[in-house]
Design a protein that fits this description.
Strand order of the largest sheet of chain A: 3-2-1-4-8
Distance between the termini of chain A: 25 Å
Largest interface: A-B, 44 and 44 residues
CATH topology of the largest domain in chain A: Nucleotidyltransferase, domain 5
Number of domains of chain A: 2
Structural class of chain A: alpha/beta
CATH architecture of the largest domain in chain A: 2-Layer Sandwich
Mean pLDDT of chain A: 92
Number of strands of chain A: 13
Oligomer: homodimer
CATH class of the largest domain in chain A: Alpha Beta
Number of helices of chain A: 9
Radius of gyration of chain A: 20 Å
Order of helices and strands of chain A: EEEHEEEEHEHEEEHHHHEHEH
Largest sheet of chain A: 5 strands, mixed
Low-confidence stretches of chain A: 322-330
Chain lengths: ~325, ~325
Amino acid sequence: MKKYAVGVDIGGTNTDVGLVDTEGNIVCRGSIPTTRYTTFEPYIADLVALTLQLKAELEQSHQEEAVLTGFGIGAPNANFNTGCVVDAPNLPFKGVLDFNKEIGKHLALPVVLDNDANAAAYGEYIYGGAKGKRHFIVFTLGTGVGSGIVVDGRIVHGITGAAGELGHVTLIPKGRTCGCGRRGCLEAYASARGIVRTYLDLRRGSTQGESMLASLPDGDISCQAVGDAARLGDPLALQTWAMTAEWLGMAMANAVAFSSPEAIFLTGGPSRVGDPLMAPLRRAFESHLLFCYRSTCTISPSSLPSGDAAVLGAASLVQHGSGGGLNLRD
Amino acid sequence: MKKYAVGVDIGGTNTDVGLVDTEGNIVCRGSIPTTRYTTFEPYIADLVALTLQLKAELEQSHQEEAVLTGFGIGAPNANFNTGCVVDAPNLPFKGVLDFNKEIGKHLALPVVLDNDANAAAYGEYIYGGAKGKRHFIVFTLGTGVGSGIVVDGRIVHGITGAAGELGHVTLIPKGRTCGCGRRGCLEAYASARGIVRTYLDLRRGSTQGESMLASLPDGDISCQAVGDAARLGDPLALQTWAMTAEWLGMAMANAVAFSSPEAIFLTGGPSRVGDPLMAPLRRAFESHLLFCYRSTCTISPSSLPSGDAAVLGAASLVQHGSGGGLNLRD
């Protein structure tokens, strides 16, 4: 008999499920297309069915009983305090989604739900580069910009359960319109879409000659392409990442003035561009820090494998989150 | 026999000392002029002498032995982790000031030192409007702008011990020069000096006709005067506070995106102007909040008497800070 946590990473396109052993290995995994469902109940029924199928496969291949210890779920707009997702813009199900209740109709297992960025922070703490650190922040860059904040060994949830939305601090007053309806949010600058927008703005105003992406129409420019071009030395693409670094560095320095973490981790697609972002980011960050914080906080990419991080983070919610509460100390 | 904590509020001009009973009454108090001293040792010797004199007076008037439980000290640039003040710009003593060690030469009493804004947050929690609240922030407006942040019932100190410098988040990129050498900090807009600067900027560009402070030369305009004029309906002064409210409201909304507190408290001179600040501040704050935080966090002036708040805050460091650590939960 061996114990496994079910790690569920709910994305707008796919929902990834993995069974994770107590050492942090994803021993089997599967996926269902989130977009295929228009209502919540059949989605959960299939999620549970997939989980039981994975469990059965595992038992067959290992010739040993597998005990599931609970569901850890990372989801956009998830609220840890209520255990619900409410009106997530990127999920097809509207209204209040009570995962605990809905999964409970099928299986009697603990369900721990948290924001996907908080799950990423758990994962980093339990299995990644934040092991043993008591003050750190994980920024997740992707379609949006999220953050999971750990203060004194504990995830910050706040009175609403929705703390840690550093993608929506106002970075540039009256700046770019953000998807949230407000203006100047970090997300409008440092998300994949924001980065593409920066590139297009630069291209329109450029006097630097051709970019290697010149033949691509605006609508075909992706953040990935801007990253690839930068790694090949394209000046316009490099400038795009330098500007992103300046904005992100300023936002991170502001976050340090709040909680004075010892480390900041970056996850998500845009963070994997490497040097074109990380080198100017570290410089911008240090230059924006108040004197008392200089050289006290490192910036690193997440040390978790990119395909596994979200599932591991979700699983860690259960393995280390139930029982003694969500205190990461013990 | 009755127990008292020594609350010490160290300001650039005066150092106020009060003996505080376990119910939060300042039963006697005194003061020494900080500016009179150029070196640390005689300053501490006089601070200790004043404390013992207050104790003696108290014992004589109450005809009962007074037991001092410890020194709680709130000071600018104080570091809770190290117990030291280092190179405080507004104190006459330079270098590393080790209060514990220096007081220890005279008295064997516990010494708990923290940033003055953190002391204000403790005071608000133990004796003021934050009683029973687990997530709140205190902003101190004065010569500078400070903050004490409580997350999940605990003051946030961070890895450096210097967390919670929300006066030095970059609010306006490339904005006003701040005393810290950086640009666009909240402090450059919402400190007493920043507010005067806003008034003077408005006066120079004004087409609204005379302000009731028109006869005062620039150098004689104080924050207090701008507050008095606003309360009398002066349009330029009211506009000054409305702009201050807009900046402060934006900074507070950003802080909410970090820790999602249930309450924000304001202390310090500028916060006592009342409606000219508080009414537009509440509006600006709500308008800048991300949707999920709307109507979840109140803004109030500190409920502690303005003359007592700093000493009570300092005393509360000892009364509730020693022994079980600085956990405010228990």
